[in-house]
Amino acid sequence: MKHFLRKKLFSGALLFLGVVILSGVAVVYAQNSLTIDKDIILSPGKVIRFPDSSTLDSASAIGGGGWTATSTKIYPQAATYVGIGTTNPTSPLYVVGTTTIAGVLQVGAGGAFTMNASQINRTDGFIEMQFAGGNGVRMFGNTSYPVVFAGDGSVGIGVTPGYKLDIADRIRIRQGSNGSAGIWITDSSGSGDRFIGSLDNTGTSAFGFWHTGAWRLNVDSSGRVGIGITNPTYKLQVAGQIYADEGTAAADIIANKIDGVTFDPVYTIEGKRYATYNPGMVGGVKEELSDVATLVATLNGNLYSYTIDLNNKEKGSDVWLFAHTIDVEKNGLKHVSVLLTPNFDGKVWYQKDEQNKKIVIFGIPNSKLEIQNSKLEISYRLTAPRFDAKDWTNYSSSDWEGLNLDTYYKNNK
Fold first, then answer.
1. Is 228 left (phi over 0), alpha (psi -120 to 50) or beta?
2. Per the domain annotation, does 199 fall within a domain?
3. Strand pairing of 346-353 and 358-365?
4. Total domain count for the chain?
């Protein structure tokens, strides 16, 4: 049986057992309750209006193609709670099962998504994730979890984190508007700046380590390494002193044009190794020249001589180089020491010609028999301060104590 309502007013309880069809506006007032055991069908464009001015139209009415009241769908409850898939909702909207949202789900200020004891909410403009008793949040990719936010605040990319930031595979840090790319490292208070990264914002910029206000070590695009210098021109260039411990082989040290083997070699003879040692020279930096001179006869009987001309113009010769390294033009022959060793029994000496920058060696053998049987030869060694010797005193500014003679004399008294 169908009932048609046309603006009727009821003051008591109403009970409809059939289908109610509303074609006009129905205003229903019931002091007790209104029970409808069947469908309410609204004509298009018509609504059910409630005393609080709210309405229910045909697009959203129960049974009107929108919400459907069945045993597994919507269950309105008191206190404006609605349950979907549950008959006992405990919040304004309580959904059990998978939910599809085709539009935008917006959570207002103070709202939150709650997952068991964990929740996602917005506070002070931030999106917050709170975890209670869980391991954290994992973002699932095609076959794995590319990003993991652990419950202790650690973040893993490609791996479950074992540190605050744990990354499996490579990372890329790009240069930005600040002109470089890298990582700053500070102490717990944020001070004590240390930086590892690029020196500038070019594609070929050097990579280096910044510490306490300066670049301490860097490697340029050609593989040159600078320590204390930002523009190395050699494979390894150091500004300052270098220390190599006793385990360093001589061949491991390169100084300008020669390596350690040149001035402090180890020799292998018949499979066994032998060491030689350079003498220490007191009195600043010096240059030396040694050779063998053959004396020639002079007009004065048995007197023989040989001249070392420091004005020798043969560029690149030993004498020419010695004269330049001691700056003979400026410093003269005053501090040039001469050591002579003859191959004959007799008298030898030398004289300095300061004006012409020459050293003349003289020799007189004790007998003419020696002259007839062999050449008269003299080995000579010239030693003089290098042109910059005044800059190298007997005092050292090195922090390395070197050979400690205080300890030696103390232990050997």
1. left
2. yes
3. antiparallel
4. 5
